[in-house]
Amino acid sequence: MIDKASLMTEALGLAAQGTGQTSPNPAVGAVLVRDGEVVGRGYHVYAEKKHAEIVALEQAGDRARGATLYITLEPCSHHGRTGPCAEALAAAGVKHVIAAMQDPNPEVAGKGFAMLRDAGITVEKDHEHTRAAEKLNEGYIQFMRLGLPLVTMKAAVTLDGKIAAPEDNRGWITSELARLHVQTIRHQHDAILTGIGTILADDPLLTDRSGRPRSRPLMRIVADSQLRLSRDSRIVSSFQNDLTVITTSAASPERRRMLEALGVTVLDFDGEDGRTDFGKIVRWLGENRYLSLMIEAGSKVNWAALESGIVDKIFFYYAPKILGGLQSLPVAGGPGRLRRVDAIRFRDVTLHFITPDEFAVEAWMIK
């Protein structure tokens, strides 16, 4: 007989297959079991509308009656693009539901479990796999609790914390394998932000090159207070309704008209000292139901984002190199903190080994 842990692990694996394809909905996986045999499997893809448990029910057919459902997230109890999954489970005759976590959506948040119990279905919470289920939907959880996207700062750094040399920056800090790993992280995000300095220096595309399908284009955002962005830059020339430029009211009206004529969205988010306001950027993303933002920028933008408090976590890739010197750019420049006791602190540090000689540090900012 299949054990409970392996069934929930399978459901989590199914949910992961929907990564990048569910926003603004959560990634969910479901496994239906009857008499020790898996009779239905499913995971959610936004474009196909059907929730994971509905896909599993359709696959199971009549064998769903009397079955147990292993699911990574509480079944919904409200009418959205589809009807309540809790009702569908009851109608199909499912007798037992084991869920890894409660839905943080205020429209559900325990109501799905209550609807199941009212229909005579026993409900069990699998606390052992709750953290893994939450990990799959960090952006969704943040959005449901705060109405804001989860903001992750990514950087490739040397062992001494440098991201660029003072003169010749040809080549890469990290390995090809690490750069491929970055694409998997990009794929998990709804939006990506950089500064005009990075655009002028490196002319990046900032696209999702994972090769996997997405529910919505990766929204590329450039913080450009003076609108120096060129129409000949790769980020503009590759535009496909996936580029937003954040500027200030002091920017050139002519350059604004040029970008808008190309279809680029240009927004005025005035901040202090003539710079763009990062808090307004994050709030705008939340208003448009972007669940996650990745920052891939230079030293100044990194510091401004950290100091503004919008950053929730970091994902820094470390290469076995040292640049040294006082002119090489640190991962976060700007004025910095003047006292060690005022350092920005992090918690829940996780190491990810990318190659035998490279690793990434994932950590949550203490706010």
Tell me about this structure.
This protein has 12 helices and 16 strands. Helix content is 29%, strand content 23%. Helix 9 (234-237) links the parallel strand 9 (219-223) and strand 10 (243-247). By secondary structure, it is α/β, with parallel strands linked by helices. The relative contact order is 0.12. The longest helix is centred in the first third of the chain and has 14 residues, at 4-17. It has helices at 4-17, 52-60, 85-92, 111-118, 130-136, 138-146, 176-187, 196-202, 234-237, 253-261, 278-287, 299-308, and strands spanning 29-34, 37-43, 68-71, 96-99, 122-125, 150-157, 162-164, 191-195, 219-223, 243-247, 265-268, 292-295, 313-318, 329-330, 346-355, 358-365.
Please render the helix and strand layout as text.
Layout: H1 4-17, E1 29-34, E2 37-43, H2 52-60, E3 68-71, H3 85-92, E4 96-99, H4 111-118, E5 122-125, H5 130-136, H6 138-146, E6 150-157, E7 162-164, H7 176-187, E8 191-195, H8 196-202, E9 219-223, H9 234-237, E10 243-247, H10 253-261, E11 265-268, H11 278-287, E12 292-295, H12 299-308, E13 313-318, E14 329-330, E15 346-355, E16 358-365
Parallel strand pairs: 3-4, 4-5, 6-12, 6-13, 8-9, 8-12, 9-10, 10-11
Antiparallel strand pairs: 1-2, 1-3, 7-14, 13-16, 15-16
Helix pairs in contact: 3-4
